[in-house]
Amino acid sequence: MPTLTINGQTHNVDVEPNTPLLWALRENVGLTGTKYGCGIAQCGACTVHLDGVAVRSCSTPVSAAVGKQITTIEGLAANGTLNNVQKAWLDLDVPQCGYCQSGMIMAVTALLREKPKPTDAEINSAITNICRCGTYQQVRAAIHAAASA
Ligand code: FES
Ligand code: FES
C-alpha cells in the first residue's frame, strides 16, 4: 500500500501505484479542495505541489508522489496564516464560481516561489489553467498584487 506525505501528514492509501494522485487525494484521503476538470492535464483544476513544484494530479501516478512532500490547497496556509497569493485573491475578489481557483492558487504560488516578480509574459507561459468564468484579468492583477506584497 503506497504511503503518501500530504500537508505534513502520512497516509497509507489503498490504491494501485498507477492510480492518479487526484483520486487518492479526493477519494482515499478526503481532500476535496483539489478539483477534477478534464482528467487529461489540460485545465489545471487538479494542481497540487510535489516538493514545491506544481503538478497536475489527474495525470500524476501515485507512485510519482511517494517520498515527496505533497501540498494541497488545504495545506497551503501555514498554521492558519494565508500566504500572499491567498490574501491577494481575497483582497481582489478573484473567484467567480470558484471551481478552478484552488488549482489556480496552487499554480500561482509555485510560480511566485520560482519567480517572485513575474512579467506578464512569464505569467502567460506559466499559468495555463483554464477558468470557465473568465477570471483571467483578476488572476493577473492578483498575481502582481501578491508579488508586490
Ligand atoms: S483535471 Fe487535471 S488538468 Fe484538468
Ligand atoms: S472561477 Fe469559475 S471556473 Fe474559474
Give the strand tally.
Answer: 5
- What small ligands are held by the chains? FE2/S2 (inorganic) cluster
Mean pLDDT: 97
Calculate the terminal CA-CA distance, rounded to whole Å.
42 Å
Query: Whole-number radius of gyration?
Result: 15 Å
Strand content: 5-15%
Main sheet: strands, sense, barrel: 5 strands, mixed
- Given as residue ranges, the uncertain stretches (5+ residues, pLDDT < 50) are none
Q: Classify the secondary structure makeup into a structural class.
A: alpha+beta
User: So what's the oligomer here?
Assistant: single chain
What is the approximate shape?
Answer: globular
Spatial order of the strands forming the largest sheet: 2-1-5-3-4
What's the helical proportion of residues?
Answer: 25-40%
Report on this model:
This protein has 149 residues and is α+β, with helices and mostly antiparallel strands. 36% of the residues lie in helices and 13% in strands. The chain is built from six helices and five strands, in the order E-E-H-E-E-H-E-H-H-H-H. A hairpin with a 2-residue loop joins strand 1 and strand 2. Helix 3 crosses helix 6. It binds FE2/S2 (inorganic) cluster (2 copies). The site of one FE2/S2 (inorganic) cluster (FES) has 12 residues, from loops.
